## 1
Amino acid sequence: MTEVTTALGLTTEQVERVLTSASLAPSVHNTQPWRFKIAPDRIELHPDTSRALSATDPETRELRLSCGAALYNLRLALQSTGVRPLVTMLPGKDAPGALAVVRRGGTIKIDDEGRRLLGAVPHRRTNRRPFLDAPVDPRQRHVLVRAAELERSWLHVVTTPEDRAQLQQLVHRAHEIQLADRAVQAELAAYTGHRPGTGDGVPPASTGVRPAMQDEWAFRDFQGSERHLGKDCESDPLVVVLCSHYDSPLGDLQAGQAMQRVLLTATVHGLSASFLSQPIEVPRVREDLRRALGGVLVPQTVLRIGYSTPVPPTPRRPVSELLMDSGEHVLR
Ligand SMILES: Cc1cc2nc3c(=O)[nH]c(=O)nc-3n(C[C@H](O)[C@H](O)[C@H](O)COP(=O)(O)O)c2cc1C
């Protein structure tokens, strides 16, 4: 097993802490598809392609979004140690196979917002429970939109009844396509339910309510989710589509960081969030969603945001399992 070493002038304990923060990021089916290579002058973030979901996420777009979220946490955690993170995304030959390389770009004192966002890292959770029937305050919407912009992405807020109906229809269409796809369902089953000793996946306590086709929004149907969404679910959640400006691996990584900043900002403001990713995962539905948004922005994830009751954390693998040997290369 590879051990944590020093990097960027930090102690091994500090390196372990920043990697723990990174590992608390959300990931599709809680696959945690990231690995880290540590050297004295850098921390490299690599995709763990053995954890890719070839049916659900055939273009590994969501894998990169998940890694982007881990990168955002890593940046915040480094700032709290006084390290200004200098990030090179998709470094190419400089670090073969890496999605990003983080070096020391001098020193920094983390600001109040950064401290609050970092404080939210262990408390942020995907909350699939029904939300309260209380609208999200327009000022809070504004800070969420700003959070995405600060990470070079765009948060489209679904406001009109027509947009809402159109998005609901796209979510349902993609949901039905995925329900009929055995490979997609097999990946879902493989990562849900009791998975003792694995440190990944979505445990029964986190699966939320079971969707039914007549529901307004079709949630992912996790194995083991028992209750029916029914009338207990909020009638009008805030629904947003996080978009990137580029349809490329770089756009995916930027969107992943923006997604995490939006989710942490929501947590700071007492808001819960869950995902409605089906229309992103089915390429022909994603194309329709892209057209519905005007054809320029690239939809990357759909979030439902509102007020709810707390949910338990999902498991994480220990940092020691996330480390690569310094000589090891992962080719994408
Ligand atoms: C890119 C991405 C897509 C996701 N899509 C869905 C989804 O469609 N439905 C859902 O219930 N959860 C979705 N999730 C949430 C993950 O299942 C969740 O992050 C993971 O189980 C870890 O739990 P946590 O977020 O509470 O830490 C998604 C997460 C990511 C990062």
## 2
Amino acid sequence: MVPTLLITGATGFLGQYTVAAARKRWRVAGTFHRTRREDAERLLAGVDSGRIDLTDFRDVREMLDAVRPKAVIHTAALADPNYCEQHPDESLRVNVQATLNLAGLCSDREIPFVFTSTDLVFDGSRAPYAEDAPLSPLNLYGEHKALAEQAVLDRYAEAVICRMPLLFGFSANGRVPFFQRMVGEFQSGRPMTLFADELRTPVSGAVAAAGLLLVAGSGLDESVNPKEIERVRGLLHLGGRESISRYEMGLQMLDLLGLPPELAQPISFRDVPAVAARAANVSLDSSRAYALGFDPPPIRNQIERILRRTAEEKTATDEHR
Ligand SMILES: NC(=O)c1ccc[n+]([C@@H]2O[C@H](COP(=O)([O-])OP(=O)(O)OC[C@H]3O[C@@H](n4cnc5c(N)ncnc54)[C@H](OP(=O)(O)O)[C@@H]3O)[C@@H](O)[C@H]2O)c1
């Protein structure tokens, strides 16, 4: 029988990519929270999905008993640092308490649990960061993710904590991520200001999802083996191979689109007031993941693949009209 993988936050940016990739090998169950039911059904067509507030312990326990997953990938979160800074109690409940509850319930059931954390647990002054680098978050989001990491490891030593880098790609949930906005602006011939001094090790949503599924037991062959997670356990960085700014990504995109480089306008994050403090360079050293089989292609190839797919989808839609 095909095992069930539960993906929390299936309507989110990373959740959508993870669901799409997981469906090839798993039976997927996905959760959403505030997304309207009809939108969730459109986004998660063919997936066993349900609305849940993950901060409600009893609901989560009942859901796990009903779905009986063989592994859980927890991508649900309040992932906007500015929102977290302004809503500290909600951030604590969702990013820390709900994560800890889920880890505990997975531990009781001995099911692999993969928690998605962030490169923002670091302050950006000593990159690149390996898994054992001391934590030094600059904002509340990073602080709560750091608290959640420790709480998960204390509660369930076999859990895997994947620190995700900046993610890029398209989203169909109505919230337009920076990369998608960049494509729209550039293709309309409008310039866009982009941070030139904030460095990260980005990967596309698709590459990130492949990494999470590798960890959750999909392996590199056709089989699904949730026991594979036992060779991972603990902290794992799923960053890309290049340390790069959004501005440099913009230049690469313009080159691929055959548009003038002037459309990307460099700015400093230090010149833009922000609610949550920003880190200069939170590039991750992900050699541990690379040794396990995680293999992100060059950024340029990842950007090119997204642009090609988007163009193909647009052509298919236009032909349908
Ligand atoms: N995006 C990035 O660049 C990035 C970088 C580093 C780390 N990460 C980490 O990667 C993970 C995914 O991030 P993302 O960008 O995909 O986030 P996202 O797009 O904001 O999606 C968050 C998901 O969590 C769900 N959710 C929020 N509150 C919930 C609650 N109380 N109960 C149940 N579900 C709830 C949302 O459901 P509804 O939409 O239905 O309300 C949504 O599906 C997070 O752990 C984040 O910290 C992301």
